[in-house]
Amino acid sequence: MELLMRRTDRSLMGMEVLVVGYGRIGSLLAPKLAALGAMVTVAARSPAARARAEAQGFRSVNITFIPAWFDAVVNTVPATVLEGDYGGALCLDLASAPGGWPKGEPVLHAVGLPGTYAPQTAAEVMRDAIYRTVKERE
């Protein structure tokens, strides 16, 4: 969020922000952006992820059809799922390598930022997700 705030001359209040991916990072990031006044939309491939986002009060779109009317696009998906600058939006890539945009796109790269700057917390979140998944499959 701090990277977004530093790279724009606007407040997050009232900004249309798209969070691409609603996994462990996207689902933590969206509420924090909303708490700062951003109008958050979530793009996800899974209908279940879109339903979870909507249940938490966010708009959602299918990741295969992302409109170009956002002020900022924040990617959390560690695969090339995006292209272009979405109508001049501020584009930030937080996903692990290879990131969400092909090389050469006008994107602020902070690839793997959560794990780089908070490795203990990132490891705990991953551990909890793995345990939860194993328990659900039992």
Number of domains: 1
Low-pLDDT ranges: none
User: With helices defined by DSSP (H or I, 4 residues minimum), what is the helix count?
Assistant: 5
Q: What name is given to the CATH topology? A: Rossmann fold
Query: How many beta-strand elements?
Result: 6
What would CATH call the homologous superfamily?
NAD(P)-binding Rossmann-like Domain
What's the alpha carbon Rg, rounded to whole Å? 15 Å
| Span of the ends, CA to CA | 37 Å
Class derived from helix and strand content: alpha/beta
How is the main sheet built? 6 strands, parallel
| Helical percentage | 25-40%
Proportion of residues in extended strands: 15-25%
CATH hierarchy: architecture: 3-Layer(aba) Sandwich
Q: Report strand order across the widest sheet.
A: 3-2-1-4-5-6
CATH class: Alpha Beta
Describe what you observe in this structure.
This protein has 138 residues and is α/β, with parallel strands linked by helices. The protein has a single domain, classed as Rossmann fold. The protein is built from 5 helices and 6 strands, in the order H-E-H-E-H-E-E-E-E-H-H. A 6-stranded parallel beta sheet has the order 3-2-1-4-5-6, covered by helices on one side. The longest helix is centred in the C-terminal third of the chain and has 19 residues, at 119-137. The protein is globular and about 50 Å long. The termini are far apart.
